[in-house]
Amino acid sequence: QVQLVESGGGLVQAGGSLRLSCVLSGRTITSYAMGWFRQAPGKEREFVGAISRSGGSTNYADSVKGRFTISRDNAKNTVYLQMDSLKPEDTAVYYCAQSRYATTVQAPAGYNYWGQGTQVTVSS
Length: 124
Description:
This protein is mainly β. The chain has no helices and 11 strands. It has strands at 3-7, 10-13, 18-25, 34-39, 46-51, 58-60, 68-73, 78-83, 92-99, 111-114, 118-123. The chain is globular. The termini are far apart.
């Protein structure tokens, strides 16, 4: 059974940093691309970023480009989302997901396994 568990969320002041972790069990993170999404109250789930199966390619939403970085540790079967220069508009529940594909995709429909989410709150 495939499971993804996120951690690392919390409350941080604007300009601060957080690192989210996502541990995958039941599959290796190198099986398919991995992605991060977020959902703020009253809004649709939106793409944040993704890393390809090989790890050689990453893709980010324009709103986080230059501030967020996705990486992974194959030995720990874990994907990370390093978030720097956080803004209040980054406040959301953050989800990691494993894609159906080897390459990065932005559409949620391209992902078939999801974590339960972790709350990130950025105060002004």
